[in-house]
# Entry
Amino acid sequence: MTRIEICLGSSCFARGGATYPAVVAAWLRERSLVAEVRGKRCSKACSDGPTVLIDGLAYRVPHEAALRQLLETTLPVHA
Ligand code: FES
# Structure
């Protein structure tokens, strides 16, 4: 199962990452996909955040549109 880890450290959280868990949950639900989604502590990439890891690979995801695009491009391969 694909694992999606969303950094919820203070920097990523303040930069917009606070909404990411809900965005990911809605995106998965709309497509009837299942993934392991969890929050993550700071991964020391604060200046590049918000940071999202998919199966251990870290991505810089500056806004919700980028998050949706990341899910579109990575999850069909992994799901
Ligand atoms: S708070 Fe997310 S990488 Fe530091």
